[in-house]
Amino acid sequence: MINTLIDGIQKKNAPVVAGLDPMLDYVPDGIKDAAFEEFGETLEGAAEAVWQFNKGIVDAVYDLIPAVKPQIAMYEQFGVPGLAVFKRTVDYCKEKGLVVIGDVKRGDIGSTSAAYAAGHLGKVTVGSKSYYAFDEDFITVNPYFGIDGVKPFLDVCREEKKGIFLLVKTSNPSSGEFQDQKIDGTPLYELVGRKVAEWGAECMGAQYSYVGCVVGATYPEMGKALRKVMPKSYILVPGYGAQGGTAKDLVHYFNEDGLGAIINSSRGIIAAYKNETYAKYGEKNYAEASRKAVEDMIADIRSCI
Fold it and tell me: Would you please indicate which residues are annotated as catalytic (active-site) residues?
């Protein structure tokens, strides 16, 4: 799947992923009103509003970008109806030819990781049959349980030709409380990065590994150092736009071939109509505002790399 992702990035000349992280506050009132009229102010009504919102955005931007990244927590908060919409969103995006990165941040002891890997990337066995459950193309994984927590994901990646992005240096302000701590003079995030490179060497695509990493746009100097540590790992970069990361910060996340990184924007795309820059589109044209935000983001990144 890493080959498919890279092919999409090159064809569209857009190392960009749209984060489908819908808060109910992001959904225009007209969409919410219609959903609540049909289902009431219920979990089902909220989930329907999110689905219609997502569908509008995907329809508006799928031809511009290679991938989307739905954050499962934004769906889980609405319970079973929300998870049904998460799955519906995954399927719809794949129908549109998009690579789907499930932002699920899973990881646990071996048997639990095996269940997560089967449910999100591989197949689950039911009697004599097997089924894909959520069926994302990539997922995000927490590596801090060590190899016994990561190996089940690696095994499924090899079997299914899918991928993972391991958390190395996250974009949130307090990430340094643990990730920046030094062990014998080396930051913990760098030690994790070395492991990503080691594990990734066993799961190679044509040019890059199926094992990528997450490095926030808000820490460009660390990103520059980690790029050297993990030359064959794709970097998923959150933190662009709303969290303060800029395109000029990101140039060193890419390799000399112009590949090696994909930049995520969530609020900056899906809630673009709430931004003063795109306010002229209004709520009814929220999807057009999202499309314009994607076009501007792509131009901004292209100008730097």
Answer: 105
